[in-house]
Amino acid sequence: MQNLRLLPALIAIGLILTGCATPAAARPPETQPPVSNPSANCPVTLPGAASFEAPAPFSPNAPFGDQFWFGTENLWTALPNNGTWSGLPLNPGGYTQKVFWWSKQFSFEDEPQPNLVVSGKRLDGDAPALHVSRATNAEAGDIGTAMLVGVDFPTVGCWQITGQYKGSELSFVVSVEP
Predict the structure, then answer these.
(1) Per-position DSSP letters for 145-170, written without gaps between them
(2) pTM of the full structure
(3) Structural domain total, the chain
(4) 51: alpha, beta or left? (left if phi > 0; alpha if psi -120 to 50)
């Protein structure tokens, strides 16, 4: 009977030693829980004076649900109304997000891999480099034709993302939260 009382502790120790459970103090920094409300000190890009009305054939209304257009006719994107990307899938490279970009200069047929360059940096602390996939083209009924990149944020926090395409540049700030 006394051995049964020790069983939960022995299981926990076994899980830690085999790597099946990792104590919070031993987790890498990118998997640590974030500070409460990290967006409170992050100058996220919000709808307002800098919002943009996309040209035809794109709807002048919000692109998808709780988002708004941001940019100019030469380069724009859709951003969350609250400035936060949360609930992103976590993979070994970080928190993953797909970012769609549009431009009146973009030709879906002629640019299967558009020369869109996307970069990012964390504003509220040190972080490994943002991983950005090569741009591709995308087409769907709800987005029309667009350029698409995948980004992996190595940590949660306040991130500035910049896109450059055919002489135009667009930057925005988002809070990445688990």
Answers:
(1) EEEEEEEEESSSEEEEEEEEETTEEE
(2) 0.75
(3) 2
(4) beta
